[in-house]
Specification:
By secondary structure, the protein is α/β, with parallel strands linked by helices. The protein contains 13 helices and twelve strands. The strands form two sheets. The protein has a six-stranded parallel sheet, with helices on both faces. α2 crosses α13 and α7 packs across α9.
């Protein structure tokens, strides 16, 4: 007699899953990073897993999508209205199940969107912030909360001797107190709040993929502010040389709803100062070296506190369950539930 469980596992592995992403080869942008890491951690589970760039929707793109039966299409960037339309088109052409990751939703207000929302309705939306969850729930969309993850093998705590070596490699002094922020230079990111902190070095590592605003670099760049505008494959080393990571943004749409840089800094066991941006306070708790702030003016006081006493830092333990492997496993279960045949 054929084991029904074994048969189901084999059928599950054979499913064709299409990831629609903005990944172009670099891991310096949030939505691309999310899709790539989930893709990488699901490759061993599925025989036919595709990662396609929506910026290159030529004949080859459509050939790969339509060459064989599609079971699930999973869309990562945004979503925007254009993205939902693309997913709906593929669903109509292939009769597949549809999954949307609401990493950074950019949709019209409900009163305008409601008229077409049922036509564009996916099978499920993977949400992060409470605000996004409420938005999609009011449209009668099925939602599930799944956070972003972090590579816990790549981003690790460095002992003091290793930190000294990394600092020397990148041209910093052993006694420098280094504040780090990773991501594009944008007014809404509020990097200017870091310029007012005395007796520190501020390191801003900009994204190549996600362009910065046309700000006055001369105003920002001084003897205490270092701006790196280049792709750094071993970005974990940059976290390793820092003393503290700061996420100062107070405005929406200045990063994905769970910024990966915050999780990466915590995986390196850095003290982290952050606003309650997006879904951060949904998955993280104040304490053990993680400091939530309600206004940028609090940053100076907390920096001084960390400089005077950095003992008791244990931010890594808060994100121990947020490995990409665990997140990918949750998403695989979503695919399984969507495609599982109804049992009598």
């Amino acid at each position: 007699m054929i084991d029904r469980k074994e048969t189901h596992i084999r059928e599950f592995q054979k499913m064709k899953i299409v990831f629609l992403s903005n990944y172009s080869g670099l891991l310096d942008e949030g939505m691309a990073n999310v899709s790539y890491n989930i893709f990488k951690n699901l490759q061993s589970k599925f025989d036919n897993l595709l990662l396609l760039n929506i910026k290159n929707m030529g004949l080859d793109f459509w050939r790969k999508v339509l060459s064989s039966k599609v079971d699930v299409v999973h869309y990562f960037p945004g979503p925007s209205l254009k993205g939902l339309l693309l997913v709906k088109l593929i669903q109509m052409l292939t009769n597949c199940k549809t999954v949307i990751s609401a990493t950074q939703p950019r949709l019209p207000e409900i009163k305008y969107f409601r008229m077409i929302s049922m036509f564009l309705k996916p099978d499920i939306v993977l949400v992060q912030s409470k605000k996004s969850e409420i938005f999609f729930t009011r449209l009668n969309y099925k939602t599930k909360f799944i956070p972003n993850g972090v590579n816990l093998d790549k981003f690790v705590h460095l002992e003091q001797e290793e930190k000294k070596k990394i600092r020397k490699k990148y041209g910093f002094n052993e006694n420098d107190f280094i504040i780090l922020h990773v991501g594009p230079l944008k007014r809404g990111r509020n990097q200017y709040a870091l310029m007012r902190i005395p007796d520190v070095k501020v390191l801003l590592v900009l994204s190549i993929t996600n362009p910065s605003d046309d700000l006055d670099y001369k105003e920002l760049k001084n003897e205490n502010v270092i701006i790196w505008k280049r792709y750094i494959p071993n970005i974990q080393e940059v976290y390793g040389l820092a003393d503290v990571y700061v996420w100062p943004s107070i405005e929406e749409f200045n990063g994905i709803e769970i910024p990966l840089s915050v999780l990466e800094a915590m995986a390196c066991n850095l003290p982290v100062i952050t606003t309650r941006y997006g879904a951060l306070d949904r998955i993280l708790q104040d304490g053990d070296g993680l400091f939530f702030i309600d206004k940028p003016e609090q940053i100076n006081e907390l920096i001084l506190k960390i400089k005077n006493n950095n003992s008791g830092i244990a931010t890594r333990k808060q994100i121990g369950s947020l490995s990409w492997e665990n997140i990918a496993h949750e998403i695989a279960n979503v695919y399984d539930d969507l495609c599982k045949p109804c049992e009598n």
